[in-house]
Write a structure and sequence with these properties.
Blueprint: H1 22-27, E1 31-37, H2 43-54, E2 59-65, H3 74-82, E3 104-107, H4 110-114, E4 125-128, H5 141-163, H6 167-170, H7 174-184
Parallel strand pairs: 1-2, 1-3, 3-4
Protein backbone atom coordinates (compact mmCIF):
# COMPACT_ATOMS: atom_id res chain seq x y z
CA UNK A 1 0.00 0.00 0.00
CA UNK A 2 1.27 3.44 -0.86
CA UNK A 3 1.94 6.16 1.66
CA UNK A 4 0.31 9.60 1.79
CA UNK A 5 3.38 10.87 -0.05
CA UNK A 6 2.45 8.75 -3.07
CA UNK A 7 2.79 11.04 -6.08
CA UNK A 8 1.18 8.94 -8.79
CA UNK A 9 -2.37 9.96 -9.68
CA UNK A 10 -3.68 7.51 -12.30
CA UNK A 11 -6.69 9.75 -13.00
CA UNK A 12 -4.47 12.56 -14.25
CA UNK A 13 -3.30 12.71 -17.85
CA UNK A 14 0.47 13.08 -17.65
CA UNK A 15 1.11 13.35 -21.39
CA UNK A 16 1.58 17.11 -21.42
CA UNK A 17 4.13 17.19 -18.58
CA UNK A 18 5.90 13.89 -19.16
CA UNK A 19 9.27 15.45 -19.83
CA UNK A 20 11.58 16.33 -16.96
CA UNK A 21 12.64 19.96 -16.59
CA UNK A 22 16.24 21.03 -17.22
CA UNK A 23 16.68 21.45 -13.47
CA UNK A 24 15.38 17.92 -12.81
CA UNK A 25 17.76 16.52 -15.42
CA UNK A 26 20.75 18.22 -13.81
CA UNK A 27 19.90 16.55 -10.49
CA UNK A 28 19.66 12.99 -11.84
CA UNK A 29 22.62 10.70 -12.02
CA UNK A 30 22.74 8.23 -14.89
CA UNK A 31 19.89 5.75 -14.60
CA UNK A 32 19.94 2.66 -16.82
CA UNK A 33 16.59 0.95 -17.47
CA UNK A 34 16.27 -2.56 -18.90
CA UNK A 35 12.98 -3.60 -20.52
CA UNK A 36 12.82 -7.37 -20.39
CA UNK A 37 10.70 -9.94 -22.22
CA UNK A 38 11.38 -13.57 -22.92
CA UNK A 39 11.76 -13.16 -26.70
CA UNK A 40 12.74 -9.46 -26.92
CA UNK A 41 11.09 -9.05 -30.31
CA UNK A 42 8.06 -6.84 -29.69
CA UNK A 43 6.90 -5.34 -26.34
CA UNK A 44 10.35 -4.73 -24.88
CA UNK A 45 11.53 -3.36 -28.23
CA UNK A 46 8.62 -0.90 -28.28
CA UNK A 47 9.45 0.14 -24.72
CA UNK A 48 13.13 0.69 -25.50
CA UNK A 49 12.36 2.85 -28.53
CA UNK A 50 9.71 4.92 -26.73
CA UNK A 51 11.89 5.46 -23.67
CA UNK A 52 14.89 6.50 -25.76
CA UNK A 53 12.67 8.95 -27.65
CA UNK A 54 11.13 10.59 -24.58
CA UNK A 55 13.77 10.40 -21.84
CA UNK A 56 16.45 13.03 -21.21
CA UNK A 57 20.09 12.06 -21.61
CA UNK A 58 20.90 10.96 -18.03
CA UNK A 59 18.28 8.22 -18.46
CA UNK A 60 19.06 5.39 -20.84
CA UNK A 61 17.21 2.24 -21.86
CA UNK A 62 17.97 -1.07 -23.51
CA UNK A 63 15.86 -4.16 -24.02
CA UNK A 64 16.75 -7.83 -23.85
CA UNK A 65 15.29 -11.29 -23.52
CA UNK A 66 16.01 -14.39 -21.49
CA UNK A 67 15.53 -16.45 -24.67
CA UNK A 68 15.75 -13.86 -27.46
CA UNK A 69 13.94 -14.57 -30.71
CA UNK A 70 16.87 -13.17 -32.66
CA UNK A 71 14.72 -10.79 -34.71
CA UNK A 72 12.60 -7.71 -34.15
CA UNK A 73 8.95 -8.15 -35.16
CA UNK A 74 8.35 -6.33 -38.47
CA UNK A 75 5.03 -4.92 -37.24
CA UNK A 76 6.75 -3.38 -34.22
CA UNK A 77 9.32 -1.70 -36.45
CA UNK A 78 6.67 -0.45 -38.87
CA UNK A 79 4.58 0.98 -36.01
CA UNK A 80 7.55 2.81 -34.51
CA UNK A 81 8.41 4.31 -37.89
CA UNK A 82 4.80 5.46 -38.38
CA UNK A 83 4.94 7.13 -34.96
CA UNK A 84 8.13 8.96 -35.92
CA UNK A 85 10.44 7.07 -33.55
CA UNK A 86 13.91 5.89 -34.49
CA UNK A 87 14.41 2.15 -34.98
CA UNK A 88 18.17 2.47 -35.31
CA UNK A 89 20.07 -0.04 -33.17
CA UNK A 90 17.02 -2.05 -32.12
CA UNK A 91 18.00 -5.71 -31.92
CA UNK A 92 16.72 -8.83 -30.19
CA UNK A 93 19.48 -9.67 -27.71
CA UNK A 94 20.16 -11.83 -24.69
CA UNK A 95 20.20 -10.43 -21.18
CA UNK A 96 23.72 -11.89 -21.04
CA UNK A 97 24.92 -9.41 -23.69
CA UNK A 98 24.06 -6.09 -22.05
CA UNK A 99 26.58 -3.24 -22.38
CA UNK A 100 25.94 -1.96 -18.84
CA UNK A 101 24.34 -3.23 -15.65
CA UNK A 102 20.81 -1.84 -15.29
CA UNK A 103 19.59 0.10 -12.28
CA UNK A 104 15.95 -0.79 -13.02
CA UNK A 105 14.57 -3.92 -14.68
CA UNK A 106 11.01 -3.71 -15.99
CA UNK A 107 9.47 -6.96 -17.20
CA UNK A 108 6.68 -6.82 -19.76
CA UNK A 109 5.63 -10.47 -19.93
CA UNK A 110 4.64 -12.87 -17.17
CA UNK A 111 7.20 -15.51 -18.07
CA UNK A 112 10.08 -13.04 -17.85
CA UNK A 113 8.75 -11.72 -14.54
CA UNK A 114 8.91 -15.18 -13.04
CA UNK A 115 12.37 -16.10 -14.26
CA UNK A 116 15.49 -15.99 -12.15
CA UNK A 117 17.65 -13.24 -13.55
CA UNK A 118 21.42 -13.59 -13.93
CA UNK A 119 23.35 -12.74 -10.78
CA UNK A 120 24.66 -9.46 -12.18
CA UNK A 121 21.07 -8.17 -12.46
CA UNK A 122 20.45 -8.99 -8.80
CA UNK A 123 21.01 -5.49 -7.33
CA UNK A 124 18.66 -3.87 -9.85
CA UNK A 125 15.24 -2.65 -8.74
CA UNK A 126 12.58 -4.79 -10.45
CA UNK A 127 9.02 -4.02 -11.47
CA UNK A 128 6.45 -5.76 -13.68
CA UNK A 129 4.48 -3.89 -16.35
CA UNK A 130 2.69 -6.86 -17.89
CA UNK A 131 0.55 -6.59 -21.00
CA UNK A 132 -0.71 -8.90 -23.73
CA UNK A 133 1.72 -9.85 -26.48
CA UNK A 134 0.50 -8.27 -29.73
CA UNK A 135 2.62 -10.75 -31.68
CA UNK A 136 0.15 -13.43 -30.55
CA UNK A 137 -2.94 -11.49 -31.62
CA UNK A 138 -5.39 -13.35 -33.83
CA UNK A 139 -8.01 -12.26 -36.31
CA UNK A 140 -7.80 -10.19 -39.44
CA UNK A 141 -5.35 -7.48 -40.38
CA UNK A 142 -7.38 -4.81 -38.59
CA UNK A 143 -7.51 -6.73 -35.30
CA UNK A 144 -3.82 -7.59 -35.34
CA UNK A 145 -2.79 -4.03 -36.16
CA UNK A 146 -5.02 -2.74 -33.36
CA UNK A 147 -3.32 -5.10 -30.90
CA UNK A 148 0.05 -3.54 -31.79
CA UNK A 149 -1.33 -0.01 -31.49
CA UNK A 150 -2.89 -0.83 -28.12
CA UNK A 151 0.42 -2.20 -26.82
CA UNK A 152 2.25 0.89 -28.05
CA UNK A 153 -0.32 3.22 -26.44
CA UNK A 154 -0.16 1.44 -23.06
CA UNK A 155 3.63 1.30 -22.99
CA UNK A 156 3.96 4.95 -24.00
CA UNK A 157 1.45 6.05 -21.35
CA UNK A 158 3.35 4.14 -18.65
CA UNK A 159 6.72 5.55 -19.73
CA UNK A 160 5.33 9.10 -19.84
CA UNK A 161 3.99 8.59 -16.31
CA UNK A 162 7.37 7.24 -15.19
CA UNK A 163 9.14 10.29 -16.60
CA UNK A 164 6.67 12.60 -14.82
CA UNK A 165 7.73 11.24 -11.41
CA UNK A 166 10.07 13.29 -9.20
CA UNK A 167 12.99 11.08 -10.17
CA UNK A 168 15.76 13.07 -8.42
CA UNK A 169 13.94 12.39 -5.14
CA UNK A 170 12.86 8.83 -5.89
CA UNK A 171 16.32 7.80 -7.08
CA UNK A 172 17.41 8.21 -3.44
CA UNK A 173 14.47 6.18 -2.12
CA UNK A 174 14.33 2.78 -3.88
CA UNK A 175 11.44 1.51 -1.76
CA UNK A 176 9.23 4.41 -2.80
CA UNK A 177 10.46 4.23 -6.38
CA UNK A 178 9.42 0.57 -6.57
CA UNK A 179 5.97 1.43 -5.21
CA UNK A 180 5.59 4.04 -7.93
CA UNK A 181 6.84 1.74 -10.69
CA UNK A 182 4.56 -1.10 -9.60
CA UNK A 183 1.59 1.29 -9.63
CA UNK A 184 2.49 2.43 -13.14
CA UNK A 185 2.45 -1.21 -14.24
CA UNK A 186 -1.31 -1.28 -13.65
CA UNK A 187 -2.07 1.84 -15.71
CA UNK A 188 -4.02 1.66 -18.94
CA UNK A 189 -4.84 4.93 -20.73
CA UNK A 190 -8.58 5.48 -21.05
CA UNK A 191 -8.25 7.29 -24.35
CA UNK A 192 -5.77 7.25 -27.25
CA UNK A 193 -2.76 9.48 -26.73
CA UNK A 194 -2.06 12.15 -29.30
CA UNK A 195 0.45 11.21 -31.94
CA UNK A 196 2.72 14.11 -31.04
CA UNK A 197 6.36 12.97 -31.24
Amino acid sequence: MTTKEHVLDPTRDRHDDAHLTDRDVSEIRTMNVLFLCTGNSCRSILAEAIFRHLAPEPLTAVSAGSHPAGFVHPRALALLEREGLSTEGLVSQSWNDLPTRPDIVITLCASAAGETCPAYLGPALRSHWGLADPAKATGGETEIEQAFRDAYRIIRHRIETFLALPLPILAKDPVRLKIELDAIGALVPDRPLSRRA
